[in-house]
Amino acid sequence: QRVFIQVGTGSLPGFVADTLAGRPHRVFSMQQEGRSGLLQLTCLSAALWVEGAQFDTRLLARPAASRAPTQRQRLALGVPLLRIAEPLPAAMATATLPPPASADPVEHCLQETLAEIEQAGQEVRSLLLQRRQQQSPAQQGLTRVQQRLRLDVSDNIGAVADHTLYPQRPGWPILADAHPVVPMTMELTLLRQAAEQAYAGRKVIEVSSIAAYNWLLVSAPQ
């Protein structure tokens, strides 16, 4: 029989089981959380030996080289955060420096930097105001999007026929016995499509705060 070994992370065992269903094969996953690399290799070797594999196990019995205990040292990265116990007085926050009275280059550089910061702030405020005026009332705030979509395994979601909670033998006539459910990824796709249809010309770039408490059963058209 064929033997497959998954060395890293992934879903190889499930893919192999689906592809070679009913055929003699074995699949082993070497990666086991909480175990060292040598221990994982030892467990894999034992599993292969049970299946009849023959190999040299002398390297597995080599004692680990002793190492002197190392002392951990905490690295001080970055700079400490500056925290102000009390807010700055309003007069200090809005105060501006008088024009430079000398040829000090540091003072001139400070004045130029402050002027650039103030100009940048004004440009950002101007653009935000312009963007707000161009938006439609529906775009300015969040609106509730409702859409009715008929989900039918025999029509528009045929792929869900294989996504069941209780798989039956091929050709089983009663679909409800298998309990087909809509995958979470398909539900998110339907939500994305509904949002993009409601807001023409815009694209969904993120979906967050999703909570799914029940399966979306589609043994009958919904």
Report what the structure shows.
A two-stranded parallel ribbon has the order 1-2. It has helices at residues 12-19, 37-50, 90-94, 105-134, 137-140, 184-198, and strands at 2-6, 25-29. The protein is flat and about 90 Å long. Helices cover 34% and strands 5% of the residues. It has 222 residues and is mainly alpha-helical.
In short:
The protein is built from 6 helices and 2 strands, in the order βαβααααα. The protein is mainly alpha-helical and 222 residues long.
Give the % helix.
Answer: 25-40%
The biggest sheet amounts to:
2 strands, parallel
- State mean pLDDT (0 to 100 scale): 79
* Oligomeric nature of the chains: single chain
Number of strands: 2
Biggest sheet strand order reads: 1-2
Structural class: mainly alpha
User: What proportion of the residues form beta strands (DSSP E)?
Assistant: under 5%
In N-to-C order, the SSE pattern is EHEHHHHH
Residue windows where pLDDT falls under 50 for at least 5 positions:
none
Overall spatial form: flat
End-to-end separation: 45 Å
Radius of gyration: 32 Å
| Count of DSSP-assigned helices | 6
